[in-house]
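haha ok so turns out i had the wrong file open the whole time. this is the CORRECT one, sorry everyone. sequence first:
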Amino acid sequence: MKVAVIQLAYGDDESVAERTDRVVALVEAQAGHDLVVLPELWPAGGFDYGRWSERAEPLDGPVATALSAAARRAGVTLHGGSIVERGTPVGDGDHGVWNTSLVFGPDGTLVARYRKIHRFGFGEGEPMLMDAGHELVVLDVPTADGPPVRVGLSTCYDLRFPELYRRLLDDGARVLVVPAAWPMRRVAHWTLLGQARAVENQCVVVQCNTAGTHARHEMGGHSQVVDATGNVLAAAGAEQEVLSIDIDTAAVDIWRRDFPVLADRRLS
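then structure:
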């Protein structure tokens, strides 16, 4: 499975339209990959809470439409990071706004939507402005040289909650994708927790973080791909960078067979 991780850098001086054009060009340059991954909330600004409302859009909005077209032109499965989704509130008192990851197939079709379950902010930011998602999402991603790969979705702060990943594992995930807007001051947690999720679930973990500085927050970068043994296969620095890597997903099954720790689980 050939994966491209686009660690996008941005600041406060770029319009959403300009950033979208830049992202589309980066995605289209990854033709030949099976899966391309973008970071969390790149259109709206991961920490730019004050502008989320004006930058919210429906699932057929301009950013989603541009990503769909980019996936189709590149012929890749595109994990578009996440957008601020605006829709119909589900329950009384809800906002009708979510931190939503969108995945497009190689034909541009929206094949998966994941609304972030764990909202970061300790009562501010996401918890104040957004609704929590409730559905786990695992999908089959086609590959050029083998069978489809079962991929589980999560976003940023979710990484701190291992029970979510156990559920994705039980739904058949062999690869876990984590787009993020993780700040530099806690970047050591970002890399450590990614390795932990890989080791404990015997899954490949693909982490795509944001670079640059926006809304006075320096972002952490250091995107990485970790194999099912915890070995870091590829790692980015602090600046904008694209990681391209061939992941041997068959090695996941071999490792699970040779070191069958998951068979000894007692609690669920």
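The helical segments are 16-28, 52-55, 62-74, 126-129, 162-170, 187-201, 250-258.
again sry for the mixup
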